[in-house]
Structure formats: C-alpha cells, structure tokens
C-alpha cells in the first residue's frame, strides 16, 4: 500500500483523482462533462442542486491542471468547511480571510507564491483589491471558481454587491478558465449571472433541481409551537435539524421553548455576537441531535450532510429562498423532510417588509410577484415537486409520491359563491377592515364596533352563516394567494380588492379551493425509525453501525472536527454492509480515498474485525 500513498497526487486524470483522492467510484450527472470543459480551458456556468456535487466540478480540474485553483466564496464558514474537508483528503488547500492572524495570513501568502497550494479560497471583497490581483499575476492559476454565483444578481435573494466586480477576472486573466456555480437560480437570475460575470461564451450545465429524498409538507398554522414539536417528535431520535423564523425575537423564543421541552436547541441570527454565532455553529456541526433555530442569516456557509429536517415557522420571501433553505436537508442523499407552517398573517408580515424596505418600485413589484408564486405553491393541490421544478423551468410530469399532496391528495370544493360573498363584504365595508371583522359581518355577529359603523344593516350581514370561522379564514387566505385580495400594510392589514376580483364578482370565473384538513402530524411505521428500518432492509448489523459511529466520533473529537468530515453516514453504512477485512477492501467503499485510508483505515478495520470475530 505504501507505493499507492506516495503516488496519489501524481495521478492527473479526473477519474483517478475522483477515486483515489475523494474515494468515489464514478461521476454523477454532468460532473465529468463540466470538468472536461475546464480542462479544455473553457468557461462554464453550473446550476446544480444542493448536495449534487458542485464542489468536485472545480476541485478536480484544479488538481489536474497546472497552477492553483482560486475559489471565490462569500462566507468565512463556507471557506473553512471546504478547506478542512480537503485537508482531510490530503489536498493542499487554504483560505485568506479576516479570521486569520497577521502571521497566518502572511504564511498563507508565502505558500501561494511558492506554489505549495492546490486551492486557495478567498472572499470577493479581497479578490478584487489591487494588491491581491497583483499577487495572483505572479503565480500560475489553474482556474477561477465563483461559488454561490446567484449573489451577483440584484434581483436574487442573496445579492452581494462585491460580486458585480468579479468581471475583472475575465479582463485581467483572459486565458484562465472560469466556472460559476449556484444551486438556486431561476431564468432571470441565470441571465444576470451571465451578463454581470461576462460569461456569454460559457457552456451552461443545467442539472435537474429535483431532490427526490426530501419530503415536502405544508401545514396551516394553528398552534405553531405545538405543531413544530409534534413534527420534531416524529423524527428519529438524535437527528439534527434547522428551524427558520422570520424575526430574531421569535428565533430566540423558539429555541428557549424547545430547550424547555428537553431538546438541544440553539439560536442563530445576525444580532448575536460573532463569538456566540461561531460557538453555536460549531456545536451544530460537531455534535449530534442539535437543532438550530435561525433566521436566514444561517445556512449558506453550512455544508453539513446529515441534516434530517428543515422546518419553517414563517413563510420565506420566495419559492427560490424556500428551495435553497430546504435544500440544506439531506445533502447525503438519505431521507429528509421539509416542513412549513403557513397562515394569512405571514402574507401580511412579508408584504409589510417589502413595502417598508426602501427599495424602488420595480424591486418591490418583483418581490411581490415572487411572494405570490410562493403562495400559489402553498395552496396548490398539485404535487409539490411539480410546482417547484416548474418554477425552475424543469418539466416533471409524474407525481413524486414523496410530498403531502401526493400521499394525501387534498379535497377541493366549489368556492365561487363563498368568494363572491367575501369580496362583496370587503367592498360594502369600504375596504377598511381586517379578516376577523369581515368574518364577523359575514357570520352575522353583532358587536359594539359593528353597531358603531352600522354594518349590521348591510346586505352582506349574516349571509355567510353556512361557513364557520375556520372555513371563512381559509376562503380569505386562498383569495389572497390567488391574487384577488391583498392586505393593506398602511391600514393595519385591512383587506383590499385587487383588480382581478371584478371577474369573480361578475361570475366570469369559477373558483375551486382546497379543503383544509386536520394538521396533526402522524408518525407512520416507516417514519418511526428511518435508520433502523434501513438497517433491517439492507441486512445491516445495527450494533456494528453504532460502533463505527462511535469510532468516527472519537476520531473527530480528538481533532476538533465535525464527525462527517471523517466519513459520511453513507460510507459507514456501506462498511457495515460489506464488512471489508483488509485495507484494499476498505478502499473499495464509496467515500474512502487513499489519504483517508492511510489515516483512518486501521481504526475502522479494527472495529469491523471485532464484530466479525463475534459472529464466528
């Protein structure tokens, strides 16, 4: 085996690097074609879902080509995560950012100048400085990789102004191939990436955005804390998850409440000190069973493969944001869940945020359009996956069988007459009141406020007694989702008619709404223990699986690393299934590269041999 260890980095073909450095037997999807594009010295734009293997598309050609690969990354956490992982594989990688001491920064610069690095990660703000560009001009560069490329779009959800300056790469280094990568970009965003990065001649590689391992579920808000807790209780004990909230206050309150329920929950938002954020993030990465309750400030820099669920207690701003945030679950390809609690109040809150944002009218209009698309997704009776993929321009004709609408198809009812009553009530009360008051009018509830306005004498008073409050709430929510009414943020949520409401009032359209159903989360037999069931299905030794996890945890703790950086769960499961008896046999397990084999092989083989001897 010694000869193999010594020669690993002399291998220059992509296939050899894939197998012996990263430990994978074959490429997935478009990976090989993207790599060849860069090896040919040409540019590429890669759109690939989270967990689809984007990083290999630039890491392998950076190792195969002469020079250092320069990776532009927007977050310190993302850089550190990638570099730590590469170092575990024996790749000479480093980063330059504000987290380094002056001495470490200078040492890394010297490594760069001496040609001692394979890859260097840097933030866009530093890359575009004249000093850094001059530094790059002194060394051979294999490629430039612009990660999270959607940050260049002014209409995107993670706009970073510094990304607009990255066109300088094409101007200063015209012969160095560039690759821009993102997991979430609709057609307008893609066009803007190409324009702003001067990638007009780049080949576009568009992989499927489908994440078949993620189960999508949307529930109506009733008692959100109780609903969230019940959802978490359905998960396998000890799994990690992320809960997203819209406000910092709600983030901290929810984390504190979950801790009171006996769960290991931590808060994360931009209002916390950097020290606290870093500590909580480190605990989430390194320990099992941790739930992070966060605003959208958390996530882009996290490359944790075994997040088993992502829950939203508030509506995201767009379907694009929702897809990116839910994509942080199940990066290892194992079953994961995306759960969202949604209500009319979310619509009002986000509309208020958009209106008060200070953005120009064009920007506000676009954000309202994106919000409406998300509302349509929430209220849709179609397969959730069909709606998501359609948004990204991808056809998915079959039902997925792995979302709430597929597994429990919603019933619909003819809501035309009810909608006309609701819209008439809004009109007759002069568009000055919120949903609660309008429901009182429709159901004939004679309050003191109603007497003061004289609304008990209106023709619409009491015409909706056939429906209860929950049903009327559903009608108004779905009218808002369909764009027939909207909440006036300047008038404390008063319901206003949209121009499209006229066609409903005139009887020119028929409306079919979904029937709301009980939102109790019921644990099926298959869901009670995903991992235990998989062990049974695969004839895997559960005790050996646990022992391998303990071995991994011990090795990780000694190096202050997240356990998944040693080996992913999928790699340990394959070990438990195949039970290799030698180093050569272990090398055949997916995820075991030559460097990791040398570093960790004997420790894991010792565990496997122990259990194998017990079976004799």
Task: List the defining traits of the structure above.
616 residues, alpha/beta, seven-stranded parallel beta sheet, six-stranded parallel beta sheet, 17 strands, 46% helix
Describe the protein's architecture and organization:
This protein is an alpha/beta fold and 616 residues long. The chain is built from 28 helices and 17 strands. The strands form four sheets. It has a seven-stranded parallel β-sheet, sandwiched between helices. Strands 8-13-12-9-11-10 form a six-stranded parallel β-sheet, sandwiched between helices. The longest helix is centred in the C-terminal third of the chain and has 22 residues, at 594-615. The radius of gyration is 27 Å and the shape is globular. The chain starts with a helix and ends with a helix.
Concise summary:
This protein has 616 residues and is α/β, with parallel strands linked by helices. The protein has 28 helices and 17 strands. Helix 19 crosses helix 20 and helix 25 runs antiparallel to helix 28.
Report the uncertain regions.
1-8, 519-537
Can you give the mean pLDDT? Answer: 86
What is the number of E strands? 17
For the biggest sheet, the summary is:
7 strands, parallel
Instruction: Give the % helix.
Output: 40-55%
Rg, nearest Å: 27 Å
Task: Tell me the overall shape.
Answer: globular
- Give the amount of beta strand, in percent: 5-15%
Can you count the helices?
A: 28
Straight-line N-to-C gap: 28 Å
Structural class: alpha/beta
- Give, in spatial order, the strands making up the sheet with the most strands: 3-4-2-5-6-1-7
Q: Topology of this protein?
A:
Layout: H1 2-7, H2 14-22, H3 31-39, E1 44-47, H4 54-64, E2 68-72, H5 76-88, E3 93-96, H6 102-113, E4 119-122, H7 124-127, H8 130-136, E5 141-146, H9 168-172, E6 178-182, H10 187-196, E7 203-206, E8 214-220, H11 224-233, E9 240-244, H12 248-260, E10 264-268, H13 274-286, E11 290-294, E12 307-312, H14 319-326, E13 336-342, H15 344-355, H16 361-379, H17 384-391, H18 404-407, E14 412-414, H19 416-428, H20 435-442, H21 448-453, H22 469-481, E15 485-488, E16 494-497, H23 501-505, E17 512-514, H24 530-537, H25 542-559, H26 569-578, H27 583-587, H28 594-615
Parallel strand pairs: 1-6, 1-7, 2-4, 2-5, 3-4, 5-6, 8-13, 9-11, 9-12, 10-11, 12-13
Antiparallel strand pairs: 14-17, 15-16
Helix pairs in contact: 3-4, 15-16, 19-20, 25-26, 25-28
């Amino acid at each position: 085996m010694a000869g193999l260890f010594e020669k690993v980095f002399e291998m220059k073909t992509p296939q050899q690097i894939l197998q012996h450095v990263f430990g994978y037997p074959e490429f997935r999807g478009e990976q090989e074609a993207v790599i060849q594009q860069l090896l040919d010295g040409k540019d590429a734009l890669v759109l690939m879902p989270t967990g689809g293997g984007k990083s290999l598309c630039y890491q392998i050609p950076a190792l195969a080509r002469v020079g250092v690969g320069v990776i532009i990354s927007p977050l310190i956490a993302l850089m550190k995560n990638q570099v730590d992982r590469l170092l575990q594989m024996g790749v000479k990688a480093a980063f330059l950012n504000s987290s380094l001491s002056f001495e470490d920064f200078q040492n890394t610069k010297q490594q760069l100048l001496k040609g001692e690095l394979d890859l260097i990660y840097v933030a866009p703000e530093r890359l575009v400085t004249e000093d850094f560009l001059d530094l790059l001009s002194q060394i051979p560069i294999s490629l430039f990789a612009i990660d999270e490329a959607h940050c260049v779009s002014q209409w995107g959800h993670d706009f970073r102004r510094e990304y607009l300056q990255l066109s300088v790469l094409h101007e200063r280094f015209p012969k160095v191939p560039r690759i821009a990568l993102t997991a979430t970009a609709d057609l307008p965003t893609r066009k803007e990436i190409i324009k702003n990065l001067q990638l007009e001649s780049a080949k576009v590689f568009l992989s499927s955005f489908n994440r078949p391992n993620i189960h999508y579920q949307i529930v109506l808000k009733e008692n959100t804390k109780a609903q969230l807790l019940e959802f978490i209780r359905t998960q396998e004990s000890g799994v990690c998850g992320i809960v997203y909230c819209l406000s910092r206050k709600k983030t901290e309150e929810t984390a504190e409440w979950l801790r009171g329920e006996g769960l290991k929950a931590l808060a994360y938002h931009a209002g916390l000190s950097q020290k606290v954020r870093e500590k909580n993030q480190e605990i989430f990465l390194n320990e099992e069973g941790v739930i992070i309750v966060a605003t959208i400030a958390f996530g882009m820099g996290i490359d944790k493969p075994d997040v088993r669920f992502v829950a939203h207690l508030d509506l995201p701003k767009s379907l694009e944001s929702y897809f990116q945030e839910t994509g942080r679950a199940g990066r290892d390809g194992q079953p994961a869940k995306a759960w969202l609690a949604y209500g009319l109040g979310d619509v009002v809150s986000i509309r208020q945020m958009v209106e008060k944002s200070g953005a120009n009218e064009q920007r506000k209009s676009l954000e309202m359009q994106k919000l409406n698309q998300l509302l349509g997704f929430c209220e849709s009776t179609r397969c959730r996956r069909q709606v998501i993929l359609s948004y990204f321009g991808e056809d998915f004709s079959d039902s997925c069988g792995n979302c709430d609408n597929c597994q429990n198809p919603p019933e619909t009812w003819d809501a035309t007459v009810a909608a006309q009553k609701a819209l008439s009530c809004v009109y007759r009360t002069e568009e000055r009141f919120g949903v609660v008051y309008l429901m009182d009018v429709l159901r004939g509830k004679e309050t003191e406020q109603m007497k003061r306005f004289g609304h008990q004498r209106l023709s619409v008073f009491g015409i909706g007694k056939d429906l209860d409050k929950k049903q009327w709430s559903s009608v108004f929510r779905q009218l808002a989702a369909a764009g027939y009414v909207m909440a006036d943020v300047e008038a404390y949520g008063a319901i206003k008619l949209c121009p499209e409401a006229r066609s409903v009032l005139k009887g020119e359209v028929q409306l079919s709404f979904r029937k709301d159903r009980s939102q109790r989360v019921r644990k099926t037999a298959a869901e009670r223990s995903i991992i235990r069931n998989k062990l049974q299905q695969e004839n895997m030794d559960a005790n050996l699986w646990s022992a391998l996890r303990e071995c991994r945890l011990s090795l990780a703790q000694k190096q202050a690393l997240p356990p998944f950086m040693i080996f992913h769960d999928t790699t340990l499961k394959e070990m438990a299934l195949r039970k290799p008896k030698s180093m050569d046999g272990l090398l055949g397990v997916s995820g075991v590269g030559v460097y990791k084999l040398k570093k960790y092989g004997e420790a894991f083989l010792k565990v496997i041999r122990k259990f194998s001897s017990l079976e004799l």
